[in-house]
Amino acid sequence: MPHTSSINQETKYKLNNGLEIPVAGFGLYLIPAEETEERVYQALKAGYRHIDSAVGYRNQKQAAAGIKKFSKETGTPRESIWFTTKLTGQQQGLEETKQALKDVASDVKESIGYVDLILLHSPKTSSQKRLEAWKVLEEAVLNPESSPLTIKSIGVSNFGKAHLVQLLAKAKVKPVLNQLELHPWLPRVELREYLKKHEILAEAYSPLTQGAKLEDPELLSLEAESGLPKAQLLLRWSYLQGFVVLVKTNNPKRVVSNLEVLPKKNDDWKISLDDKIWKALDKPESNDVITWGHNDPTLFPID
Ligand SMILES: NC(=O)c1ccc[n+]([C@@H]2O[C@H](COP(=O)([O-])OP(=O)(O)OC[C@H]3O[C@@H](n4cnc5c(N)ncnc54)[C@H](OP(=O)(O)O)[C@@H]3O)[C@@H](O)[C@H]2O)c1
């Protein structure tokens, strides 16, 4: 029995605040600032409607400019494009986060007016800093007129269960999602169950393991057996898990081919994986963290 889903390039998932996020996201980590505007423009032209940047990537301003250019040239409404950015650890804290919102506003407001989603990039600060930062983000969502920047949704990244338990005990606004390293070698089964219980969506980053596992002998043999490119196998796995998927490429051809893993809206084929391949990729116990210097940020101790 193949594992199949009816999602397509235009599918959106409903968040716990009622807004809808496009399932296929284009990530900007390590895209040089001077190439970002063009790459974002290309990604939108290819059909992506979801762009993932961060203050730490030093390209959010150029990303916003790419969205503006596409929107203006094609007449695509700003509202049909999702833009996420993330605040660094140094931007956590009452004063720090207030200042951070002014800084993000000065980078993106003129081009795109508002931000769809702001995330705390990492829990690797302190309980006080995380909770203070969250308070400022909540305030921005609850009282938009008091904020220098309109933010539609707020969320977290790299938060483990302990960080979420602590946050949810105080939060007036729930995070809409948790952006996490997720791939067959790091399926985070337990954490995902917790997220599901609390209606927090799992968003997958590094679905291609940043290339680290692309020469894995088992993956290469699945590629040979299935006739599907290995990157496609990993992306199919990720979409079929129900994640919002963020994939990065700075290669114009891959911008297109990575999105074509999903059918176009009216195509008559569905994304699927053969049961044998699905089982071979299923490693529920695996815990191979590739990003963040191999130190799992979700396990950062609570002070
Ligand atoms: N919240 C966080 O802490 C965090 C951490 C990491 C990433 N992210 C987000 O998630 C996004 C994606 O993750 P990522 O950039 O770490 O890793 P990724 O998407 O898993 O992998 C990107 C790497 O794979 C290569 N690649 C892309 N498409 C390919 C294909 N079809 N075949 C073979 N290789 C391919 C890229 O090279 P080319 O560019 O040469 O194609 C690049 O080296 C990021 O850009 C960022 O937005 C968030």
UniProtKB/TrEMBL annotation:
Domain NADP-dependent oxidoreductase: residue ranges: 31-269
Residue ranges of the TM segments: none
First and last residue of the signal peptide: none
Binding site for substrate: H121
Residues under site feature: Lowers pKa of active site Tyr: K86
Active-site residues per Swiss-Prot or TrEMBL entry: Y57 (proton donor)
Single GO molecular function: oxidoreductase activity, acting on the CH-OH group of donors, NAD or NADP as acceptor
The UniProt record lists the keyword Oxidoreductase: yes
Record has Oxidoreductase as a keyword: yes
Name of the molecule in the record: LALA0S11e01618g1_1
Organism whose genome encodes this protein: Lachancea lanzarotensis
